[in-house]
Amino acid sequence: MTLRRVNVVILVLLAVAFLIIVQRNLLNLSDFLHKENPDAGVILPFEAEFSPDIRLQTLRKGEEIPVLITAAEERLGAVIAAMNSIYQNSKANVVFTIVTLNDTVDHLKVWLSNTKLKNVKYKIVIFKPELLNGKISKDPQMLEVAKPLTFARFYLPAYIPEAEKAIYLDDDIIIQGDIQELYETNLKPGHAAAFSDDCDSASAKGIVRGAGNQNNYIGFLDFKKVAIKKLGMRANTCSFNPGVIIANLTEWRNQNITGRLEHWMELNMQEDLYSKTLAESITTPPLLIVFYKRHSTIDPMWHVRHLGNTGAGNRYSPQFVKAAKLLHWNGHYKPWGRASSFSDVWDKWFIPDPTGKFHPVRRHTGDN
Ligand SMILES: *[C@@H]1O[C@H](CO)[C@@H](O)[C@H](O)[C@H]1NC(C)=O
Ligand SMILES: *[C@@H]1O[C@H](CO)[C@@H](O)[C@H](O)[C@H]1NC(C)=O
Ligand SMILES: *[C@@H]1O[C@H](CO)[C@@H](O)[C@H](O)[C@H]1NC(C)=O
Ligand SMILES: *[C@@H]1O[C@H](CO)[C@@H](O)[C@H](O)[C@H]1NC(C)=O
């Protein structure tokens, strides 16, 4: 009888000791996780607010695939759906670098850590809008068009310093294929990036003519300006869409791509090289200049575009959309908005916001 009591006491003591050790370790772990990297702005390390054992089970091995994507507060559901589609459709060791503004960090972390994305590997990098001083107009109307985060892609090697090759993705995309395949896109020697040309067959199918849907250089750049003329580029050269980029970061650094992009942004401030063109894009033109005839191409099925344009629903058959590896809702009609085509495809990957702040706008609100 006393023996039994002693056993119980020992068991209780062991349990208490065990709990203390576990708690210590967790505290230590969270200390470590909250350390910040002082070099590259504020970099919050990988989230790991779950048990290390669970983490081990779900750890993906193999070569890391670095993916840069931005997270804008007013459309945070976009990056969540995009990440979910990438993660569920691949076994690859994907590591996301999410560039966002300071005010969005907490919301994003709650969303990621309280849903099935909690085991996804990611780091959050805070974009410093001061980076763009003297490079984009401060006119509030322009700022509306020129969302600072859209320039994050210009700084790829700064955000992913450890990688040689990386993928940049717009947030209004869904991936239906295995991202490993996209990552293996071959870049020609001397090329710093691959893009999808706007004249390839899959894309041309979806092009809707009119302002904002240009598919050649003259739609994006003012060829009457001396600085543009001097480059000797052909105005009818097919443009490309920089919503999906495969980059060789070594080449990017060697060729000083970031510095050259900044140079064209600064020159545009003085000489209006592209602010008033039909396409109204101010992120694409510097890329068109710097990568003129110096980029590789992405398989058209890995960047099916224009799902956000009027008429996309008539141009693409459901079979084609199903077969596409990557869908991009560039254009005015976003799949989380009211009037977009194929928003049912996007809905499959969307994960509701645990904070309740973000809701896709649907025709029949109240259904769910
Ligand atoms: C706490 O974490 C540090 C790394 O940040 C590690 O070196 C140390 O061994 C850990 N201590 C314990 C008790 O786990
Ligand atoms: C970022 O936000 C936190 C609160 O969420 C605040 O304490 C901090 O000062 C902000 N940092 C900057 C650079 O604005
Ligand atoms: C990237 O470019 C460097 C320099 O040209 C080259 O040595 C390397 O093989 C390239 N890497 C990839 C993955 O294409
Ligand atoms: C990169 O390009 C910019 C613009 O042309 C130039 O000002 C800068 O000096 C270049 N940097 C290097 C390291 O070559």
From TrEMBL:
It comes from the Eukaryota. Belongs to the glycosyltransferase 8 family. It is found in: Membrane. Keywords: Glycoprotein, Glycosyltransferase, Membrane, Signal-anchor, Transferase, Transmembrane, Transmembrane helix. Gene3D superfamilies: Spore Coat Polysaccharide Biosynthesis Protein SpsA, Chain A. It is a single-pass type II membrane protein. This is Glycosyltransferase 8 domain-containing protein 1. Signal peptide: none annotated. One of its GO terms (cellular component) is Golgi apparatus. Its main location: membrane. It comes from Lates calcarifer. InterPro entries: Glyco_trans_8, Glycosyltrans_8_dom-fam, Nucleotide-diphossugar_trans. One of its GO terms (molecular function) is UDP-glycosyltransferase activity.
